Amino acid sequence: MRVVVIDYNGGNLASAAQAARKAATRKGIEADVVISRDANDILTADRLILPGQGAFADCAQGLGPELRNMLETATANGTPFLGICVGMQLMCEYGLEHGRTEGLGWISGNIRRMDEAADAGLRLPHMGWNTLDFTPGAHLLTDGLTPGNHGYFVHSYALHDGAESDLVATAQYGTQVPAIVARGNRCGTQFHVEKSQDVGLTILGNFLRWTS
Questions:
Q1: Whole-structure pTM over 0.85, yes or no?
Q2: End-to-end CA distance of the chain
Q3: Structure confidence by residue, pLDDT tens digits, 45-56
Q4: Among 29, 125, 153, 162, which is disulfide-ready with 109 (CB 3.0 to 4.6 Å)?
Q5: Hey, which residues are catalytic here?
Q6: What pLDDT is attached to residue 133?
């Protein structure tokens, strides 16, 4: 299996790649994990991972038209895709961090500041461990997990106005926060799977064996 971590001048690329290697080993999967923006690598990959760290607008700009087109082509042809943190946010229609920026448009909704959490007196960014709420058995990505397991979050913006059918898991932080989303062969986690220890490695391992 060839796994490509998308190189778009973003953060957490090396740690995401290392976590994917570790997850593959735990699942007994032979995986060649590379960090690349090369068209041939992306279009022939068995799995695509898009980490994200920073502002929505900056990450979207880092992708640019060329990488966007590659990701659209590969995923439209059925390649499973995992977005992490801002990588997940980029799956939506648009973001409002530093002005309106268009997303990939793969899922419904928009990314905006978590004002509900601030209004509830909670600190932003939402940083640290938080429990995951989901229906066991509803999606392969949560196989082996138990509701109440923790993911590691670092964000001040979140998905709003999304489709209920895209939600795999949520977290509570002043309001219900989409934590895992999936539509077809495209999925994403708001929390950092590469920093979420056994929970994150379990999700990554599930992604590597997932066929939508």
A1: yes
A2: 16
A3: 999 999 988 899
A4: 162
A5: 85, 192, 194
A6: 98
